[in-house]
Amino acid sequence: MMLIFLIPGIVYGIMTKTIKNDKDIANLTSSSLETMAGFIVLIFFAAQFIALFNYTNMGTLIAVKGADFLQSIHLDGIPLLIAFILVSACINIFIAADSAKWAIMAPVFVPMFMQMGISPEITQVAYRIGDSATNIISPLMPFFPLVVAFAQRYGKNNGIGTVVSNYRSYICCGW
């Protein structure tokens, strides 16, 4: 796979005279990897967290104790799902990536809700409702500037206020 992209890239660099010798190839390769350094460090610590979370069985422990607590206060069914929707909506304000939120929440809430008689599919639907309902107002949403740019493309007077005020139409369109 690497050769499929490497060989045309080198040929293009030679044809455009960007690559003159093998040192130019090494410099271009290392400069492109520099942009990945921060991401690699972040992933290292995230992987350590997930490994420790799995090693200690903390997710299972929290799920069992959480289910026991929910049963003791008689919170189940629709009220429990509404509470979970609100929790995922609040978490969405602080964590931008959908998959990261679900990776943290799923090992705890899916088994907990299964003990409460709620299927994993319903748990994920409740998560998606809470997550998608607050995506547009999340300060960390990476796509918000893109949405504003598209809105301005079709209307010169459109801005952040227009996008936020038309929020209900974004929900209807699947956001």
From TrEMBL:
One Pfam family here: ABG_transport
Keywords: Membrane, Transmembrane, Transmembrane helix
TM ranges: 37-56, 77-96, 102-118
Upper lineage: Bacteria, Bacillati, Bacillota, Bacilli, Bacillales
Organism: Siminovitchia fordii
Cited InterPro entries: AbgT (IPR004697)
Keyword Transmembrane helix listed: yes
Domain of life: Bacteria
Protein name according to UniProt: Aminobenzoyl-glutamate transport protein
